[in-house]
Amino acid sequence: MKIDLHMHSTASDGTMPPAALMQLAHQEGFSLVALTDHDTCSGIGEAARVAAEYGMDFLPGIELSCGGEKEIHVLGYGVDPESPQLEAFSSRREQERLDRAEQMLLKLREAGIPIPMEDVLRNAGGMIGRPHIARAIVQLGYASSVQDAFRRYLVPGQCGYVPKAEVSVHEGCETILSAGGVPILAHPMELKSGEMALESLVHYWHSEGLMGMEVYHPSTANHKVHMLLSIARREQLLVTGGSDFHGPEVRNTILGQGCDRWDFKEDLLRLYEAMQKDCPTWLK
């Protein structure tokens, strides 16, 4: 069985529409998938419908952007896409993202790199983000690739960078919990913390509602899996995994990447129990 619990569509910063993404997952032989777009559930309805047509099990998810200049992402599994609390959070973040994009374009224009907002919006099917600005930069010839655009213009210290509005991990967890979901720390290795510092952070966030950690992810080197599993066991956290697939134009990953190391049966049973949902028959 192949599973992937972390992927993005054009509803946020992925490059494939939800339906096409589910079709690709089916073609690649996946049995269980989750759509986890940034700060929005707008693609879930379409993705769930197409996944069901292909006979795949599907989890409604989201990835909330927390932190500030240091980004911390919290995945939510089993959320109700129509939760008023989640919709309010998403609406607020959508406006904050638009305001940030406008500020970034102003800074780029002042640096001699005029990028029309129309070009950015054309790249964005839903929640606007830096990848959409990066694609416009590439399209207008100011960078050779999305990665090059980020490196030259859109990261801290560069001319087009604007910090995000800060959101606490506590608020992210509470929003997911209020929507009936299970909050999971995404790609912990991208926090660039040592084992003791990471465990201290995870311990604190656990007290604020965090219920699990994404151990299996392309950013987790093979020799770091044991460390993350040890932290998860000590903190009695759920364990999940996913590729963080966006499409090759954004991240050089493939569906399922990182999950091939995951003996997932017991972890998935615990996740479904935490979500208070019936697990797929093939897991029993």
Distance between the termini: 13 Å
Helix/strand/pairing category:
alpha/beta
Q: Stretches where pLDDT falls below 50 for ≥5 residues?
A: none
Average pLDDT works out at 95
What would CATH call the class of the largest domain? Alpha Beta
Under the CATH scheme, the architecture of the largest domain is: Alpha-Beta Barrel
Side by side, the strands of the main sheet go 1-2-3-4-5-6-7
Rg for CA atoms: 18 Å
Number of alpha- plus pi-helical segments: 10
CATH superfamily of the largest domain: Metal-dependent hydrolases
Strand content: 5-15%
Overall outline: globular
Main beta-sheet strand count, sense and barrel state: 7 strands, mixed
Q: Please name the CATH topology of the largest domain.
A: TIM Barrel
Q: How many domains, as an integer?
A: 2
Give the number of DSSP strands: 7
Question: How much helicity do the residues have?
Answer: 40-55%
Helices and strands, in N-to-C order?
EHEHEEHHHHHEHEHEH
Brief synopsis:
With 284 residues, the protein is α/β, with parallel strands linked by helices. The protein has helices spanning 18-27, 44-53, 84-110, 117-123, 130-139, 146-154, 169-178, 195-207, 225-235, 265-275, and strands at 2-4, 30-35, 57-67, 71-77, 182-185, 212-216, 238-241.
Features:
globular; 10 helices; DNA polymerase, domain 1; 42% helix; alpha/beta
Description:
The chain has 284 residues and is an alpha/beta fold. It has helices at 18-27, 44-53, 84-110, 117-123, 130-139, 146-154, 169-178, 195-207, 225-235, 265-275; strands at 2-4, 30-35, 57-67, 71-77, 182-185, 212-216, 238-241. It has 2 domains: 2-81 and 167-283, Alpha-Beta Barrel (TIM Barrel); 90-154, DNA polymerase, domain 1 (Orthogonal Bundle), CATH 1.10.150.650. It has a 7-stranded mixed β-sheet. The longest helix has 27 residues, at 84-110. The protein is globular, with a radius of gyration of 18 Å.
